[in-house]
Fold:
Amino acid sequence: MLSVAALMAAALLLDRLLGEPRRLHPLVGFGHAANLLEKHSTLAAAASRAACSAGCCWCCRCRWP
Structure:
């Protein structure tokens, strides 16, 4: 089994060789996906609230002419 020092040295060497990705960084992609999901869930929730409000108004209108 490799020692902690050997693993750290290997990790530092790989980081120095590979570095950060220049394009399509994983965290940026995750942020875009989270924003897209939040936008769609917010729109769905707003549509659901509007439909519920319209249904309540329709029921009240039918019940009390």
